[in-house]
Amino acid sequence: xxxxxxxxFLGKAAGGIVxxxxxxxxxxxxxxxxxxxxxxxxxxxxxxxxEDWAELMxxxxxxxxxxxxxxxxxCFGCHGCEVACKAENDVPLGNYIRQTFYKDAGEYPTVxxxxxxxxxxxxxxxxxxxxxxxxxxxxxxxxxxIIDYELCQGHGxxxxxxxxxxxxxxxxxxxAVKCHNCYHRLEHEMQPACASTCPADAIYFGDLNDxxxxxxxxxxEASDHGVELVQLRGEKKTKPRMWFAGPAPAEIEERIPAEGxxxxxxxxxxxxxxxxx
Length: 277
Description:
This protein is of the alpha+beta class. The protein is built from 11 helices and 10 strands.
């Protein structure tokens, strides 16, 4: 199966747009999962028969295990990772592959703003992969959870199944879009755009099987200093490959979109700076 990245796909899709597409897309949006969805379905009900996805869930036998470590103690909310991600992947306005959530904690005069950079967790037991009826989601190099844009039909069940709000439906191509660990950069031995851009050294990525990789070294250093590492929504049993350090996850997790939702600009609403009393 030929691999096609999102930028290549959208370049072809743009040339095929004809009159009436906008009206058709508007009509379809009423039935399409999005960040304003108010109904929630049990993700287990969305899963396809195991024989349809079992093979896709198995990563290539390349000896690599990609993972992430986010040090929220260092993040100061510059949103550079978001900007880099948008520029690298042609993410349209109002949509996000990664997003930094924040919350003001404490009481005056002891107040702090906490930040939590979020993206796809690249789960070992990925519910989005199980839910896709087109078998368009699979494990790529290093276990990255990736979408085949040739197969994706914009069904949206992956959005409904993701417990981290990390997938959205592209408004132009009507394809599902999510973080793919910048596999086009990894092929050239480059770091994902967000990790290489972060000025605070808060985002670490690499091969968890390589003790000398940036992510392994960062996790070891944190562990050696007694820093607790946490993962989000462990009760979902998705086995995410992203670990966090610092107080932000406990404070901000409730603000992270869940099943049927996607990252959106409302997260930056001034009224969300601090929880309402």
